[in-house]
């Protein structure tokens, strides 16, 4: 008996869900893998689990949880997500190398629906300069890697990196070989975002016409947004027969990012008349997912971003407002409710009690444990004492802020700042470091500098401040400030966020959030042969 036959007979029959209807588009979310490859977007284990849990709840079919060979942190994240998630397939990326594939399987083996994703570049440029392999060597590697992965796992996806710039004949040969070796999904990436929508759909159509066994696999696409065309190309590819789209929440990802999940899903839902395809995504979760990913990564969503931008459903001009009041359809092609933007039913203020607060959190899509609820309620009361009107956005900012710092080793306690034109500006800062209180007073070139100097004095580190950004959560001078801080150390960068009506307190919280992330971040040994 061959090793393959032996392993196949002893393996538990797990794998992808039942075959899907012809009009069903599989949504493959790679926020935790490609999304995390955005500089500064790294997430810790708890954060990845939080996102994966929400993605599962919202009906994402496949969650790519990481690249297990890249670091112990990635391995652990894929393994823990694989243990927790039951309804979505959990996927781990590997290069076309047996060691990578074994490591991916090691992380995935406890998943209810594991998927190994193996990738190799197929374009002339990548094969010659990056891989330094001939096309025949690459073809051999495709067969070996997919067969090896199939010996371990029923559900194997194969990707041809830089697929859109691959010679058509060679692309057809590799796709056919991958399917023959056992790939159930063949993914065609537009790795550098170069293709135009018509070119990309023609490429997918060509595969259906020329690859004899194409009906044995799901054709997937993975588009990057370098020319702002990732969503358009993905949808064009679906029209040409692709039935899996790879995407990320808020379009996070390498360089200009990946196709945005919320845009793909809402385009398919809203324009079902001309794109008669379905997804399994509960679109009402979209706003929550967007906010969670934005809070965790510190990547603020631009106000005019489609679907999830703060202005996506706002009507400023009088003519538009008048039209919407008369009939929402005049200027709204989808309802705010369809993406989870609820019209508020509970108005909150300083007299609101714990029960009302809990109900409001539920309305906003949060369910907190008792301790987290108590902390959030305490901060809400504090905020209500200082701010006349409490908007939903205030509560979301406040709860997000609690959520992201639940496991911080260094916690903010208090801050007293002397600012103004007379100088010197000083900050008296109190921190809780591993359960012990510390206090110091430092000066700086302005109150933000003084505050950050106080943190550096109590928690010495070599990280460099790369980005400091403030934005107001709502309107008005008493609005909460949401601050993003990006720190860089030894080539790794992390983002942190903080919210508070006091911009300096928000700044201290954001800096500490980033610093805590740096402490937990493991050294990544990013494989050099994979660029996207
Ligand atoms: O962009 C790309 O080619 C990728 C592959 C790993 C699928 O991310
Ligand atoms: Zn990619």
What does this structure look like?
With 532 residues, this protein is an alpha/beta fold. The chain folds into three domains: 25-297, Alpha-Beta Barrel (TIM Barrel), CATH 3.20.20; 318-403, Recoverin, domain 1 (Orthogonal Bundle), CATH 1.10.238; 410-520, 2-Layer Sandwich (Double Stranded RNA Binding Domain). Helix content is 39%, strand content 19%. An eight-stranded parallel β-barrel has the order 1-2-3-4-5-6-7-8, surrounded by eight helices. A three-stranded antiparallel β-sheet has the order 9-10-11. Helix 2 (45-57) packs antiparallel against helix 11 (286-297). The chain binds 3-methyl-2-oxobutanoic acid and zinc ion (ZN). The site of 3-methyl-2-oxobutanoic acid (KIV) has 11 residues, from strand 5 and strand 6. 3-methyl-2-oxobutanoic acid is lined by residues 34, 93, 119, 159, 161, 187, 189, 191, 222, 224, 532.
Strand-residue fraction?
15-25%
Q: Give me the secondary-structure category.
A: alpha/beta
Basic shape? globular
Distance between the termini: 39 Å
Could you give a short account of the major beta sheet? 8 strands, parallel, barrel
Q: What Rg do the Cα atoms give? A: 25 Å
Number of strands: 14
Average pLDDT score: 90
CATH homology superfamily name of the largest domain: Aldolase class I
Quaternary structure state of the chains depicted:
single chain
Q: What's the CATH architecture name of the largest domain?
A: Alpha-Beta Barrel
Query: Widest sheet: strand order?
Result: 1-2-3-4-5-6-7-8
């Amino acid at each position: 008996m061959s090793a393959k036959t032996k392993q196949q007979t002893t393996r538990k029959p797990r794998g992808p869900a039942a075959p899907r209807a012809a009009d069903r588009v599989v949504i493959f979310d790679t926020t935790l893998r490609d999304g995390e490859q955005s500089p500064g977007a790294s997430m810790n284990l708890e954060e990845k689990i939080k996102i994966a849990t929400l993605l599962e709840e919202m009906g994402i079919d496949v969650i790519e949880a990481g690249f297990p060979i890249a670091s112990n942190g990635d391995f652990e994240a894929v393994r823990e997500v694989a243990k927790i998630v039951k309804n979505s397939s959990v996927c781990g990326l590997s290069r076309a190398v047996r060691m990578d594939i074994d490591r991916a399987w090691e992380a995935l083996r406890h998943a209810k629906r594991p998927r190994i994703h193996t990738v190799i570049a197929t374009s002339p440029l990548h094969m010659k300069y990056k891989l330094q392999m001939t096309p025949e060597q690459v073809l051999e590697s495709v067969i070996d890697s997919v067969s090896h992965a199939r010996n371990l796992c029923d559900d194997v996806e194969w990707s041809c990196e830089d697929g859109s710039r691959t010679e058509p004949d060679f692309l057809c040969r590799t796709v056919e070989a991958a399917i023959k070796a056992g790939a159930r999904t063949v993914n065609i990436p537009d790795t550098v975002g170069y293709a135009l929508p018509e070119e990309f759909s023609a490429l997918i159509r060509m595969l259906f016409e020329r690859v004899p066994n194409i009906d044995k696999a799901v054709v997937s696409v993975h588009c990057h947004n370098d020319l702002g065309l990732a969503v358009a190309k993905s949808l064009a590819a679906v029209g040409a027969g692709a039935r899996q789209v790879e995407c990320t929440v808020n379009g996070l990802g390498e360089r200009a990012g990946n196709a945005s999940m919320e845009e793909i899903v809402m385009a398919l839902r809203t324009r079902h008349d001309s794109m008669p395809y379905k997804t399994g995504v509960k679109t009402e979760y979209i706003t929550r997912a967007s906010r969670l990913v934005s809070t965790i990564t510190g990547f603020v969503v631009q106000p005019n971003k489609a679907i999830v931008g703060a202005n996506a459903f706002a009507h400023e001009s009088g003519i538009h407002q008048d039209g919407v009041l008369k009939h929402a359809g005049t200027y709204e092609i989808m309802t705010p409710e369809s993406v989870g933007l609820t019209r508020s039913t509970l108005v909150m203020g300083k007299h609101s009690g714990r029960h009302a607060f809990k109900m409001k959190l539920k309305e906003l899509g949060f369910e907190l444990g008792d301790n987290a609820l108590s902390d959030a309620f305490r901060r809400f009361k504090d905020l209500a004492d200082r701010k006349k009107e409490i908007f939903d956005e205030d509560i979301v900012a406040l709860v997000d802020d609690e959520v992201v710092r639940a496991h911080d080793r260094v916690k903010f306690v208090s801050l007293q700042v002397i600012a103004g034109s007379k100088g010197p500006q000083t900050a008296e800062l109190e921190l809780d470091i591993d359960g012990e209180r510390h206090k110091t007073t430092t000066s700086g070139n302005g109150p933000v500098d003084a505050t950050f100097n106080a943190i550096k004095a109590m928690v010495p580190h070599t990280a460099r401040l790369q980005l400091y950004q403030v934005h107001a959560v709502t309107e008005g001078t008493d609005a909460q400030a949401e601050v993003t801080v990006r720190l860089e150390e030894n080539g790794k960068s992390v983002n942190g966020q903080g919210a508070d009506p006091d911009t300096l307190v928000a700044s201290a919280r954001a800096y500490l959030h980033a610093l805590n992330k740096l402490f937990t971040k493991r050294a990544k040994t990013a494989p050099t042969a994979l660029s996207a």
